[in-house]
Design brief:
aminoacyl-trna synthetase; cytoplasm; aa-tRNA-synth_I_CS; 4 domains; mainly alpha; Rossmann fold; Glu/Gln-tRNA-synth_Ib_cat-dom; single chain; protein biosynthesis
Length: 464
């Protein structure tokens, strides 16, 4: 008994702009399905629209996929570069009788449609005698079945039936010799060995016409899986009015790539009640039969929850790398060696509370600033003469203590009690001295991250 053919999926974006969040999810679903089965995930750039396709858009798509952490097999395929192959297949179909020459001009087609509203165009050249055919430019059309139905056995939508009398003889090769997108897609998917076509359900009607091209060539039909589109919170198709829609915008907002993979995987697919998972689990669990038929809704609150989970779960080293990448992506200066060292010491105490990378950097601001610390108005108000005197005594008390949380807290407690105060009463001036803010992480977490010398220097700067 022969083993089943290896799974091959593909992502085939048009390079006419940024990578939409819906396209990113489509790429992720294809990647998960292939990787979970030891298969191949291929990338094809559908750049046949030369007026709108740009190298910059192609680069942006590749960068987006790399940021998301999706690796593909082999080199990306250019659809435009394969135009000769598309024409070759069209002419083979012409020779086999599964396609025919159509000499109808664009003006004649427009006039026919005006005279026959709500009807599918039927070329008068479909069954014309070759001897009557003129020496003139012609398109090559598919000789599609006129009767019966075309059924798409869709892994998500179920069986979807199309009446053949509602499908026209689509053009394969235009009169100028260029292939149509609908034809090129089928030839490319066949030649690339694609076994599963996972894409948005806005392509479902295309599948019927493309299936006819497969059948006309006697090629094996791939498994189709048309996934519902992503909607906004109002239930309408996602657009810029809902906020961020480009993957680069989510990267700039500081959602880690691992969190985006987790969140996008759950956007229209489910595995029981599991909401939080890693790549290995997603690849092992992902299957087409668990994709819902209804559109998924983008939920920023849920995304923030998932993001917070992944930030907390990252190792400090991985999180430092993610922060460095975020700073580079958003055009911010990289961390200095001193900043990275302080931040690395602080992450263990900070990462459990942050839901995005900018929020984490804001919490860690105390570790990134240099002396002298510039206090905002609210923090500066806590540095009255009495508080400054107490900070001076604390500075002296901290000179020789063991630099551990317990010993630091004990020294601060003794200093506060010497003035008949609770520890909370000196927390505000401590925050002002160390961070210049009234809302900060624990003062002792800050001291540990800053180290003895920097902590004492900051306290000395304001001590009376």
């Amino acid at each position: 008994m022969s083993s089943p053919a290896p799974v091959v999926t593909r992502f085939a974006p048009s390079p006419t702009g940024y990578l939409h969040i819906g396209g990113a999810r489509t790429a992720l679903f294809n990647w998960l399905y292939a990787r979970g089965r030891g298969g191949r995930f291929l990338l094809r750039i559908e750049d046949t629209d030369r007026a709108r396709s740009t190298p910059e858009a192609t680069a942006a798509i590749l960068k987006g996929l790399e940021w998301l952490g999706l690796d593909w097999d082999g080199e990306p395929v250019s659809q435009f570069a394969r135009a000769g192959r598309h024409a070759e297949v069209a002419r083979q179909m012409l020779a086999a009788g599964t396609a025919y020459r159509c000499y109808t001009t664009a003006e004649e087609i427009a006039a026919w449609r005006e005279a026959n509203p709500n009807r599918v165009f039927q070329s008068p050249w479909r069954d014309a005698d070759p001897a009557t055919q003129p020496d003139a430019p012609y398109a090559i059309r598919l000789r599609a079945p006129r009767e019966g139905v075309t059924v798409i056995h869709d892994a998500v939508q179920g069986d979807v039936t199309f009446r053949n009398d509602q499908l026209d003889d689509m053009i394969l090769l235009r009169s100028d010799g260029t292939p149509t997108y609908m034809h090129a897609v089928v030839v490319d998917d066949h030649d690339m060995g694609v076994t599963h076509i996972i894409r948005g359900d806005d392509h479902l009607t295309n599948a019927a016409r493309q299936a006819q091209v497969y059948a006309a060539n006697g090629w094996d039909m791939p498994v189709f899986a048309h996934i519902p589109l992503i909607h906004g919170t109002d239930g309408k198709k996602l657009s810029k009015r809902h906020g961020a829609v480009g993957l680069h915008e989510f990267a700039a907002m500081g959602y880690p790539a691992a969190a985006m993979r987790n969140y996008l995987a759950r956007l229209g697919w489910s595995h029981g009640d599991d909401e939080l998972f890693d790549d290995a689990q997603a690849q092992a669990w992902f299957d087409l039969d668990a994709i819902g038929k209804a559109p998924a809704r983008l939920d920023f609150k849920k995304l923030e929850h998932v993001s917070g989970h992944h930030i907390a779960a990252m190792s400090d080293a991985a999180l430092l790398d993610e922060l460095a990448r975020f700073l580079a992506e958003t055009g911010q200066p990289p961390l200095t060696a001193v900043q990275a060292a302080r931040l690395g010491s602080a992450l263990g105490a900070l990462k459990a509370k942050a839901r995005t990378l900018p929020a984490l950097l804001e919490q860690a601001r105390f570790a990134l600033i240099e002396r002298p610390v510039d206090a905002d108005d609210k923090a500066a108000a806590s540095l009255d003469p009495v508080s400054r005197r107490i900070l001076g005594e604390l500075t002296a008390a901290l000179q020789h203590v063991n630099w551990s949380r317990d010993d630091l807290e004990a020294a601060a407690q003794r200093t506060a009690e010497a003035h008949g105060l609770g520890l909370g009463k000196i927390a505000a001036p401590l925050r002002a001295a160390l961070a210049g803010r009234s809302s900060t992480p624990s003062v002792f977490d800050m001291m540990l991250a800053l180290g003895r010398q920097e902590t004492l220097s900051r306290l000395s700067d304001v001590a009376g």
